[in-house]
Amino acid sequence: MTTVHLAAVLPLLASALVAQTPDFRNTTWGMGRAQVVATEGTPPSQSGERGSEIVLRYASARLAGLECRVVYIFAKDKLFGRSTCSSENTRRRTTSLQTSR
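Now predict its structure.
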């Protein structure tokens, strides 16, 4: 019985011990709000709550040479969503949303 439990827990433990590589502006899924703000290096231009989620907005950020807005979304103080919106001019606008699995 103990062997079965240990076999079920080992893969979960191993995946938790593997460090995530930052993949978007040096953030990783599951980071806390304070960690993301520290990584950004400046306070957000706007923050608020949307239901049980906390949203941080950075109105002025540069991504791939474009001026963008970056939005981080947290649930239970864990990063689970990120969104960017950029605009070179009023005719061209792109938006992307990423969420953790």
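Helices lie at 2-17, 33-40.
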